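Teaching assistant here, posting this on the class forum so everyone can see the example we discussed in section. The complex has two components, and the goal was to see what a joint structure prediction looks like when all of them are supplied at once.
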Amino acid sequence: MNPINEICIIDDDRIYQIVMAKNIARADSSVKVQQYLDSTEALAAFSAALAAGEPLPQVVLLDINMPKMNGWDFLAALLALTPQPKTVIYIVSSSIAPQDHERAAKFPVVRQFMVKPVHKDTLDQLLRGEL
Amino acid sequence: MKNIWGVDIEVGTNMLDLIHDPADRARAKHNFDQALQGKHLMVDEEYGDENLNRLFWENRYSPMYSQQGQIVGLTVFVTDITWRKNNEIELQRSLRLVNQQNQRLLNFSYIVSHNLRSHTSNITGLLDEVTTARNETERQEMISYLRQASNALDRTITDLNEVVAIQANVDLKTEMLSLHRYVDQTIRLLNEQITAKNATVRNNVPKEMLVKHNPAYLESIIFNFLSNALKYSRPDEPPLIAFDCSYTEKGGVLLQISDNGLGIDLAKNGDKLFGMYKTFHNNPSARGIGLFITKNQIEALGGRVEIESTVGQGTTFKIYFA
C-alpha cells in the first residue's frame, strides 16, 4: 500500500479521538484526518461520497463498542452499500475477547485488529502503508 | 412387581395387561419381544410405581430355552438403580451450573479488561501529550482531559466493584418478600418522576404473591425497571406502566413490567441489551449500567429475565424468580 494521506477515525471515545489525531499530526502533518464520534454520521458521509462518485477515505480506524451503531453493524451497512469498498479498515478496540478477533477475521475488508493503545511505531508503520 | 409397575401379578396373568401407563407397556412389550426373538439385553429404564413416582431400573432380559433349543419364555432380572441415577442427574445439573458460571465469569473478565483498557490507554496517550505539549495552554488542555479520563476510570472501577459484589455474594441472605408491597414502595419512591411525566402506573400484583429474594436486590430490580420505563417513554403519549404477576407452570413466580414507551429494536440490539455500557436511545443521562446490574441481581439468585419489545409501541420485561 502507498503512504497514507487520508484517515477516518470512527470512535465514540472523545479522548481517544483527540490523542489519536494529535499522534497522526505529529507523525505526518500532511495526513488529512476525518473524525466521527457517531458511526451513523460516518455511514451517512460514506454513503454520500459513494453516491457522488467520490473516493472513500484511504484508511478507516473503526471502534467496535459504540452506542446506536456498533462497529459490526457499521461494517455490515457499509458492505451493503458497496460489497468491495475501496478503503482499508483497521478495527481499533480495547477488546481482547477472542470472539471479537475471530469475527473481525471474517471480513476481508478488515486488514487488522488492533488493540488499544495504538503505539507510535505501529502508527508510523500504518502511515507508511506498511501494515 | 408392585414397586415397578404399581401392581401385583399372579401366576397365569399376562404381565403386560397389568401395566397402566401405555408408554411403559409399549416399552415392556418391546423388550419382551426382543428376548423372545433370542436376544439378551440389558437396559436402564424408568418406570412408575404405585405412587406415580418414576424410578430407575437396570433390567436384563434373556430368552428361556427348552431342551430342544426352542424359546419358550423369558427371564427378567431387575435392579433398582434409582439412587445412582438421581446422583448422575444431580451431578449433570451441577456441571451445567458450573459451566454457565464459568462462561459468565469469562465474559465478565473480557468486559473488565475492555473497560479498564479503554481508559488506561487514553491516560497513557494523554501523558505523552502533556510532556510533548508545545505551550502551556495546550498542556493545561491535556491535563483537563487527563482528569476526565481518570474520573471515568474511577467510575468504571466503582461500577465493576458493584458487579463483582453481586457475583461474589455466594451466601446472599434471602427472605420471602411481598412483591405487591415492593412495587408500591417503588411507585412512592418515584412519585415525582411519575407526576412529572403524567404517567399511570398500575400495580396489578396480587397481594399474596411472595418471592424468595434478597430485599436490597429486589428493591433495586423493581426500581430500575420502573425508572427505565419512565425514562424511555414516548413524548407523544402519557406513559402507561403495569406490573403483573402470575405463577409459571413449574410453580415459579413471573413478574411482568409492561410499558407503552419507545420500545427497542430487539433484532438489532437484543444481544446487547443486558450488556455493560450499552445505551440505545441517545439519552444523555443513560450510562448503560442499570440493566447489566439488574440482570446480575436477578441471576445471582437463580432467576432470569426476558424481554419483548416493539419499536414505537412498548416493552415488556419478564422476570422469572427461581
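For the discussion questions: Chain B touches chain A through 26 residues (CB under 8 Å). The first strand of chain B starts at residue 41 and ends at 48. Think about how each of these relates to the inputs above.
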